[in-house]
Amino acid sequence: MPKLIIDKETCTGCGACIDVCPYDALTVEDDVAVVNEKCTFCGACVDDVCPVDAITLEKEEKKVDVSTDEFKNVWVFIEHERGKVANVAFELLGQGKKLADSLGCSVCGMLIGDEVEPFAKEVFAYGAETVYMTESPILKDYRTEPYGAAAINLIRKYKPEVVIFGATTQGRDFAGCVATTLETGLTADCTGLDIDPEKKLLKQTRPAFGGNVMATILCEAHRPQMSTVRPKVFPMPPKDESRTGEIVREPLTMSEDQVRTRLVEFLRGAETVNLADAEIIVSGGRGLGGPDQFKVVRDLADVLGAAVGASRAAVDSGWIPYEHQVGQTGRTVRPKIYFACGISGAIQHQAGMRTSDIIVAINKDPDAPIFRIATFGIVGDLFQVLPQLTEELKKKLGKA
After folding, report:
1. Rg over CA atoms, the chain
2. Residue 206 three-state SS
3. Nearest-angstrom CA–CA distance, 371 and 100
């Protein structure tokens, strides 16, 4: 069991550790910090927090439960639906190639479904060297049990070192099933994947504690190392249709009678906004002041043919539906141009849009965090700036 140790002789009772503890696990009693039973040993109070270094975290030695030497290669789950591969699979193949190069191994695709072999050509074109595939009529539509059985059989037999999935509705459900059955770790909603140069482990980075800190997680004791990654976090790699590779086929070891679910009907809800694929997004935040004021945002979006986004503050206030939310608890986007109008730029919002090609920030507060990542910044009243910008763009685009 880990231990949080506070040196009573060194501690000055300044309270710096209390300010950063996300669980209210620290108090000051008799001018000395005291830890209570709420502590989760997260370490938030340790690194560069205590001015006198009075706090230390003793961690128990981890027992390695598997021989990690027999695991090799980086696998990407090739998600598909209704005859089309999800773009996030190609994005992850690009990043998977970088991870594989750092590990000195290959990037491979894991393809599961019915009559999905034609997808393999696209998977090779985006960088995979091998495709591990299971086909069966039982796998025509995604269901957790048969897809899980197919993936677990492939992983146990061929032993990949890393397996990554898109953090989509399907990917989150699927990855959780696979990781639980294999008794390995899974880091969800990653915003960064890299290889530790010394330990040769997958560094999985994701926002934690409501997006207030960025946590980097290592899976030292189990294999494979598994992560889900949101769409648009990584760029689409170049496509080379001349690439070819090997297809390794394995049968499904499950019958229809063993599957406890049946697909009765597939219903797709009407999408009112497609932020994920939008090339231009105009987003509004708390600075708009109310739902009616979103008109200036929509006017600019209409001129540019853009999608309308929003910050969490605007959505939580009920000014605009959740489907428009950009950020850690909303959509991750990667447009060519992102307009942040009246958005301060908290880390939770930045997590969903900072990889945009161009960021235009409009805010009357010159110290707003959004200006630190903006390509262009306009300090001013958005209710004066946006209408003028809209009118000028109408003239330039011939829409006046």
Report:
1. 24
2. strand
3. 35
Report whether 203 contacts 196 (CB < 8 A): yes
- How far apart CA 88 and CA 73 sit, in angstroms, is 19
Give CA separation, 76 vs 92, 267, 334, 387, in Å.
7, 27, 21, 45
**Do 311 and 319 form a contact (C-beta atoms < 8 A)?**
no
For residue 291, report the phi and psi dihedrals to the nearest 5 degrees: -65, -35
- What would the CATH number be for the domain defined by 3-58? 3.30.70.20
Q: Which CATH number fits domain 280-396: 3.40.50.10470, 3.40.50.1220, 3.40.1190.20, 3.40.50.2000?
A: 3.40.50.1220
Degrees to nearest 5, angle at CA 248 with 246 and 252: 155
Q: How far is CA 63 from CA 11, 162, 195, 197, in A?
A: 33, 20, 21, 21
Q: Are strands 202-208 and 192-195 parallel, antiparallel or unpaired?
A: antiparallel
The arrangement of strands across the sheet holding 192-195 comes to: 192-195, 202-208, 213-217
Query: In the chain, pLDDT over 90 holds for what percent of residues?
Result: 56
For CATH 3.40.50.1220, list the domain ranges present in the chain: 280-396
**Element at 205 (helix H, strand E):** strand 202-208
Give residue-wise pLDDT tens across range 163-213.
999 988 899 999 999 999 998 989 998 888 999 888 889 999 887 766 567
| Tokens of residue 192, six digits | 């960064």
Average pLDDT of 204-232? 83
Whole-angstrom Cα distance, residue 102 to residue 86?
26
CATH superfamily, domain at 68-258 = HUPs (3.40.50.620)
Distance CA 163, CA 174 (A): 12
Q: What is the pTM of this model?
A: 0.69
- Tally Cβ neighbours within 10 Å of residue 252: 18
Q: Do residues 113 and 76 make contact, with C-beta atoms less than 8 angstroms apart?
A: no
